């Protein structure tokens, strides 16, 4: 475990921060941007080695399908990993359901809601989920959300909320795979931000417009 923590610390130190993103957004051209980030592409092989070494078949790459991922976690023999990853995945599913219902209320008010909901809830009970799904509009949805464990969240920042949940799991279950999941998640967000900068530069957006789209954890 000490070897894993040392590797994680080294990799985490290389993650981009807000000032790094702002500098990249100010790249003089797309070519200039690519020359600055090319070195980071060599990290992928290192990250894959970390996945295999630290997580193995039980944690390394969970299925993309949320139901299958949930069942995979529940079948884990390691109780510490099972509890930590249940907390992380359960929170992720709750947030995804909240986001799906909100977007349907905001943009497709006549659409059926239930076919779009993942049939799993973690810290939202079934009655609360029903109230969210059957709320007639966004104002009523917000009121119903306030009566759940997620009453004080910002719906427009799901990535930051999930990252906070992962870090809470790491503190609650030290020595679990939560620390590793925190790094993997932060790395995925970093890749999304780099793609956003690349596309913004390609289409001639201003540095402030591009930076405004960054997800800063």
Spell out the blueprint of helices and strands.
Elements: H1 2-12, H2 18-25, H3 30-37, H4 43-54, H5 56-59, H6 66-74, H7 79-107, H8 126-134, H9 138-146, H10 158-172, H11 178-202, H12 207-211
Description of the molecule:
- The chain has 217 residues and is mainly α.
- The protein has two domains: 1-60 and 185-217; 63-176.
- The protein has twelve helices and no strands.
- The chain is flat, with a radius of gyration of 19 Å.
List the helices and strands in order: HHHHHHHHHHHH
N-to-C terminal Cα separation, in Å? 25 Å
Alpha carbon gyration radius:
19 Å
Helical content (DSSP H or I, runs of 4+) = 55-70%
Helix count equals 12
**What structural category characterises the helix and strand content?**
mainly alpha
Largest pleated sheet: none
- The total of beta strands comes to 0
Percentage of residues in strands:
under 5%
Average pLDDT for all residues: 86
In total, the number of domains comes to: 2
Assign an overall shape.
flat
Low-confidence stretches: 53-59
